[in-house]
Amino acid sequence: MSASGSRGRGRGKRVNRVDIGPPEPYRSQSIAIIPEKFHQGNKENRMMNRPPSSSSTTTSSGRKPSTDHCKSTSRSSTNRAKSTHSHRNSIRSAVPDTSIISIAQRPDQGGTAGQKLRLYTNHFKCNIPQILKCHQYDIELEAANRDNTWRPAKKDDRFLILRKIIEREHFPLVWYDEGKSLYSIELLVDLKDQYEIIIKDKKSDREQKYRLLIINLVKSYDIQVLWDFIENKIAIRPRDPIRILETLLKQTTRATMVCVKNQFYDRRQDLDDLGDGRGLAHGFYQAMFLTKIGATLNINSTFTCFYQPFNLVDFLCEYLQHNIIRDGIDEREQQLLLRKVLKPIWLETHHTESVRKYRIRGFGASARQHTFPRIVDGTNEDNQERQSVYEYFLEKYQITLKYPNLPTVELYTPPNKTQFHYLPMECCTIQAWQRSIKPLTTDQRARVTKKTVVNPTQRYQSIMDIIQIRNFNQDKYLNEIGMSIDDQQMLTVPARFIPPPEIKYKSGRDGQSDIVERINIGKWNLRNRFQKTRTIDRWACVLISSQKPNPNQLSIAKQFIDQFPYIIKQYGICFQTNPIMFSDPANPQVIHDRLRELKEKNCEVVLIILNGVGEDIYKSIKYSGNQKLGIVTQCTDFVAIAKNIRNKKLDMYLQNLVQKFNAKLGGVNGMVSLARALTSSSTKDDI
């Protein structure tokens, strides 16, 4: 740790490091598979472990006033405090203003086929006063630096800062978009151009000075345009008034919940663990729509992933799926962590008197090995004696580090990227409620789907519960502008339950005559041959693993390969030869070379078994097969294969797989019985 000052944070110049790409996930070896036995081979891909090293990478927009912005006549522009951002780019929609957007016309008096019924929608009618004007003001929220200059306030702090100023100064009704805009139904003629406030952090007791700059009136909006659009008096959808009202609807919820665009999540809930340092949160979505009956509020259940607020050591154990306390973190894993997960994450430290927030830039030597000049009387100048991070924490904070042999982490505080600090991992915690946009693995998607896909009755009740908890009609912001929501019941629409079509397959006996399968609530059995199939003359199977497969895994793969041709033969797909078989490491280049080799051997299709690999490997397979080489690939999951072989349900598993398999080969699985559908008496008068 390179430390200076009395705060106990290491500082020092950044060391240039060699940027080394990640090596292969395990010692590269190809295990060729012949019909009777797996054989090891292709040892030329073997590579040596690399010694640990470190690497480094270094890393307000101006906004011009729009031509349609109106200058305020009620606020003086002279002697106004200047903003640190003098110009801003106008926010524009991707849809041009000249586009003609009209409400879809529905056939309310439709056909007569099927059973008539009414469907609940997840929409609730909004009652908005037609005579209403909203005014948009351009503002800045800034934080004071130590040298009395100003910088933009952090996004997460803006809402709280503005709310405290509003409460202290007794503003009229205003609402905020957490960016650069403040909205009101009154002209803010009596407000000053600048307000300052000092806010004390509850955790650290540190005081920070902020200021609000009210720059100018941007534009006034007449809500009457919503009805003009609904009644087809204007053709351009009024996006800005809708956005302003949606911002108003967020105000109360935003103060108490985590807000991700139009989604809201209760901070008090426990996340459902996903097994890699992330958890699933349950929340709700809300948005306003314009329909034939007027404005409606759309409410739905939603789920998203957040990083768990774990200690950094525990988080990395979860993410890497091994015990880093015992095994350490090698150079490849350090590069992987920085590239894929750690750089955008905020970390907190709690070992000092205050909670501090950092971003991670890299890894350093272990707490025992990383040394810096010993601090004497608050300074380390002209001091040749050195101390380690481990010794510093013991002397300064009386903290005996539990894991002194783990790498330290190199931290910095934006926007100051020149000062950095080497701290022990165990002193860092993942800041709570940081959203993760990293794709889910196949297993995680299955777990999330099981939790989020519910029957209509449960979905209905979940949405009604959200409406009751949200209690829109007691919202002070809605009450102030005279807006209300009909929240007692969802809006309903007329519908008809149409008899399902019939699907034709070829008979499994003679392969010629048509067999009709009846559909029951979207499901039907696959008991016959596909309509059109092909014979495969040459094919291959490749086992791709993140780690060297053990004999049991090889045996399971062999069982699957032996049974696969015989099971899918009943659907009309025939294999003329035994497959070419290999086992390869999960390395994109190795995979590409293997597929190219099989392409040169005239393989028509490659069946790939994925054994503990990530989504990136799946994408590499599809990129090489579909885009680069033009060879058909069908991926399947090793865990699912093993489970179904063990439970003797491989036939059922392959029913789903073979339908995709046949379609990729240019086949036709089934055909809708058009003759019966078109000649049915119940559909003759249908529209």
TrEMBL record:
GO molecular function, a single term: RNA binding
Domain of life, source organism: Eukaryota
Pfam families, per database record: ArgoL1, ArgoL2, ArgoN, PAZ, Piwi
Record-linked PROSITE patterns: PAZ (PS50821)
InterPro entries xref list: ArgoL1, ArgoL2, Argonaute_N, PAZ_dom, PAZ_dom_sf, Piwi, RNaseH-like_sf
Record-annotated PAZ domain positions: 311-432
SUPFAM superfamilies found in the cross-reference section: PAZ domain, Ribonuclease H-like
Region entry Disordered, spans: 1-113
Regions of compositional bias (Basic and acidic residues) in chain numbering: 36-47
Gene3D superfamilies, per the entry: 3.40.50.2300, paz domain
Matches recorded under PANTHER family: EUKARYOTIC TRANSLATION INITIATION FACTOR 2C
Protein name as catalogued: PAZ domain-containing protein
Organism whose genome encodes this protein: Rotaria sordida
Lineage start: Eukaryota, Metazoa, Spiralia, Gnathifera, Rotifera
